């Protein structure tokens, strides 16, 4: 029996489509092409989240310059998109690198659509020894961290108790859709699948850098087997929870999601990470 087609309006909280400010879209043309790709994937609300380093806040001149660059790029993008891209709403935020002992997220432009939620990442794609302190500092300041691409950090597989602690203390875990296909290697792929299986993922996002495919639609097709409960969970991961985050509401808990693991990834030597 062939399953019927499943579609849902997607809200993507993690992209690099702001033109000319980081390693994503390098110019307005690339940014607009990226918007069209996202729309074709079913995205109807998107957040441009360029990289921003916490350490810049200790250097006021650099901080001001960075915000001015972001402001100009965001205005350029939204102005150009206002006529031909009416299907999509463009919000702004940052992917905030926790590379300084002091965390100040009081500037609304650092947070997702100005909400209390902030997309954060660890430096150097590793789980740092001070991870818990950094995340706790965000919480204690009144903000809620959304940990970007949780599955991609080196060392996360041997720090499973720490990941559970982040989850239990209220940090939201975001997983990249393309990790489910092994785009970043077998380790992040398996970690992403297990995070979903444990029900610890609050949302899927693309981390789209204006090249290749965002992977969101493919992720939906990979997980969807046609069941109503399954599709309800998918709606939560790519639509309802991201919307709740941007609207400054509390996301709902996501039940476990089982993803078929390709045979190649079943042979990874590190399956013992999870029980």
- The CATH class assignment is Alpha Beta
Question: Would you count the extended β strands for me?
Answer: 9
Number of helices: 8
Helicity level: 25-40%
Q: SS-based structural class?
A: alpha/beta
Instruction: Please name the CATH topology.
Output: TIM Barrel
Give the tally of structural domains: 1
- Mean pLDDT rating: 91
Cross-sheet strand order for the largest sheet: 3-5-6-7-8-9
The major beta sheet can be summarized as:
6 strands, parallel
Structural features, described:
The chain is built from 8 helices and 9 strands. With 275 residues, it is of the alpha/beta class. The strands form 2 sheets. It has a 6-stranded parallel β-sheet. It has a 3-stranded parallel β-sheet with strand order 1-2-4. Helix 3 links the parallel strand 6 and strand 7. It has one domain (10-273): TIM Barrel.
Keywords:
275 residues, alpha/beta, TIM Barrel, 6-stranded parallel sheet, 3-stranded parallel sheet, globular
List the helices and strands and how they pair.
Layout lengths: L9 E6 L12 H13 L2 E6 L2 E3 L6 H25 L4 E4 L2 E3 L19 E5 L9 H10 L3 E4 L12 H9 L3 E5 L9 H12 L3 E5 L10 H8 L4 H19 L16 H4 L9
Parallel strand pairs: 1-2, 2-4, 3-5, 5-6, 6-7, 7-8, 8-9
Compact description:
The chain is of the alpha/beta class and 275 residues long. It is 36% helix and 15% strand.
């Amino acid at each position: 029996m062939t399953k019927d087609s499943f579609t849902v309006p997607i809200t993507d909280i993690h992209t690099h489509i702001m033109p000319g400010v980081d390693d994503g879209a390098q110019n307005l043309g690339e940014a607009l092409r990226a918007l069209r790709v996202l729309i074709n994937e079913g995205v109807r609300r998107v957040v441009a989240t360029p990289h921003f380093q916490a350490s810049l806040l200790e250097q006021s001149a650099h901080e001001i310059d960075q915000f001015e660059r972001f402001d100009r790029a965001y205005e350029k993008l939204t102005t150009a998109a206002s006529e031909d891209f009416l299907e999509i709403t463009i919000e702004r935020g940052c992917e905030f690198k926790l590379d300084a002992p002091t965390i100040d997220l009081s500037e609304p432009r650092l947070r997702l659509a100005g909400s209390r939620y902030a997309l954060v990442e660890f430096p150097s794609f590793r789980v740092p020894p001070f991870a818990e302190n950094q995340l706790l500092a965000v919480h204690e300041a009144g903000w809620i961290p959304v940990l970007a691409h949780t599955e991609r950090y080196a060392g996360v597989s041997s720090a499973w108790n720490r990941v559970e602690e982040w989850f239990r203390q209220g940090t939201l875990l975001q997983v990249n859709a393309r990790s489910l296909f092994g785009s970043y290697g077998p380790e992040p792929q398996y970690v992403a699948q297990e995070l979903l299986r444990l029900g610890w993922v609050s949302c899927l996002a693309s981390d789209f850098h204006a090249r290749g495919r965002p992977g969101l639609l493919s992720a939906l097709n990979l997980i969807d087997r046609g069941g109503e409960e399954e599709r309800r969970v998918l709606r939560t991961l790519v639509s309802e929870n991201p919307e709740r985050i941007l609207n400054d509401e509390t996301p709902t808990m996501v039940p476990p999601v089982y993803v078929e693991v390709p045979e190649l990834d079943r042979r990874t030597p590190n399956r013992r990470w999870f029980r």
